[in-house]
């Protein structure tokens, strides 16, 4: 039994080493798209990055020569092969939380950084912890692109066609009505999509869509299934975890998918041995 356990550990180690070596090649070509949710100093949950940690992460990006880009710049690179600045990076936020304006926005301005916020438009001005439209408009005038996270944050894949169109078009029109700018990019709630979703997204007039598939973006990728790197809140080893996710996204993504397969195959204890930074 002990030998079998050691063999399994050895196989896992070799697997991690193999994908780590693979990452060295891939990381030179990929563009990181970071995915945040809430930024504030009080809440303690995986979707909330403490303000001080977010500030440290943005400082790291600036000091290490990263240049923030917009969804349009990424789209032009993917579709037309247009050149991007050295070390490009796209910073995104999902849902449209009020703390994005209160805490993240001043830090982004301090470092002269662009960012993108994907809004759940029905939540704006309706719930206390979400943005108001006047703040959305202010940010949209100052290097913050506003995209859609649908009308009501429903998972899109179970919806019938009529409700799917309502969620896609309604969210898009709400952003355009309130910002006086075209809304041409969407982040799929939960990252879920299928062929009908992609088809209706294109019909609705979107130029691209963002997932939560943990990997870099590379030339030739489908602009309607853009990968993103999830950045979570943590109480321990904050900057090392951020560094690993930023620089080793393919490794983290493969580890996540490998662990999920172990769980699906009925090996939850074994899956727990795989550390995901």
From TrEMBL:
GO biological process, one term: carbohydrate metabolic process
Gene3D superfamilies: Glycoside hydrolase/deacetylase
Origin superkingdom: Bacteria
Domain NodB homology: 87-277
Cellular compartment(s): Secreted
Keywords, comma-separated and alphabetical: Membrane, Signal, Transmembrane, Transmembrane helix
Gene Ontology CC terms, in alphabetical order: extracellular region
Residue ranges crossing the lipid bilayer per the database entry: 6-24
One Gene Ontology term of the molecular function aspect: hydrolase activity, acting on carbon-nitrogen (but not peptide) bonds
PROSITE patterns, alphabetized: NODB
Protein name stated in the entry: Peptidoglycan/xylan/chitin deacetylase, PgdA/CDA1 family
């Amino acid at each position: 039994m002990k030998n079998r356990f050691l063999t399994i550990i050895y196989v896992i180690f070799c697997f991690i080493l193999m994908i780590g070596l693979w990452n060295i090649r891939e990381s030179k070509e990929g563009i990181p798209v970071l995915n945040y949710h809430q930024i504030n100093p009080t809440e303690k949950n995986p979707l909330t990055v403490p303000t001080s940690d977010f500030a440290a992460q943005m400082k790291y990006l600036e000091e290490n020569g990263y240049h923030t880009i917009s969804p349009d710049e990424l789209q032009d690179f993917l579709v037309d092969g247009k050149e991007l600045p050295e070390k490009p990076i796209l910073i995104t936020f999902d849902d449209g939380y009020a703390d994005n304006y209160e805490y993240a926005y001043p830090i982004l301005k301090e470092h002269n950084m662009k960012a993108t916020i994907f809004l759940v438009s029905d939540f704006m001005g309706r719930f206390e912890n979400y943005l108001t439209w006047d703040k959305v408009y202010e940010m949209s005038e100052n290097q913050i692109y506003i995209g859609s996270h649908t009308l009501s944050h429903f998972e899109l894949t179970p919806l019938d066609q009529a409700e799917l169109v309502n969620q896609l078009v309604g969210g898009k029109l709400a952003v355009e009505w309130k910002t006086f700018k075209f809304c041409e990019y969407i982040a799929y709630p939960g990252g879920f999509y299928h062929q009908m979703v992609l088809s209706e997204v294109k019909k609705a007039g979107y130029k691209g869509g963002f997932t939560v598939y943990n990997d870099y973006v590379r030339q030739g990728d489908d602009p309607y299934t853009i990968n993103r790197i999830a950045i979570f809140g943590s109480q321990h080893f904050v900057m090392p975890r951020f560094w690993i996710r930023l620089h080793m996204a393919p490794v983290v993504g493969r580890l996540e998918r490998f662990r999920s397969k172990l769980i699906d195959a009925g090996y939850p204890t074994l899956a727990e041995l795989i550390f995901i930074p």
